[in-house]
Amino acid sequence: MKGSLPCSTLTTARTSAGNHPDHIRIGEAATAAFLRFAGDGGPGFRRLVYGGIRQSVIDRWNQRRVKAGLTAWDPDTVYHLRGVPDERIDIDIDTTGVALLVRQAMQEHRTQWNDMNNPEATEEQRVKSVSRETQVIAWPPVRPGRVLTDVFDDL
Hints:
Strand order of the largest sheet: 1-2-4-3
Number of helices: 5
Shape: elongated
């Protein structure tokens, strides 16, 4: 990681979007590697970011899931989604321009997509569900005074 000098590193954390054991372990390894070099005065390693989904979005999805006869997401259940308190979201990116490509990529993971989404959802709803990316800044510890629209804002 030191040789690549990333300005911003995006990974996952135990408290971010999914309770997926291997994703959590990868996030722990990436976080440890990032923190070995962050703040040493050298180039790179200026921001560590965790993906996350607003709790209000999870709540809305859960209402729809229950209405459709599906089980609500339980943050303590392995592989279930979990939300991040809305006020903890530091970055909100409009990904509408690539949402169709993301949707097409997700179709390659049909079992995950089908487990995660209401089978009654329209294609428009499915594309809309991947039209935003939200993240939490884990490092530096001082949070920005506003919600950023890009992982590189203010760097």
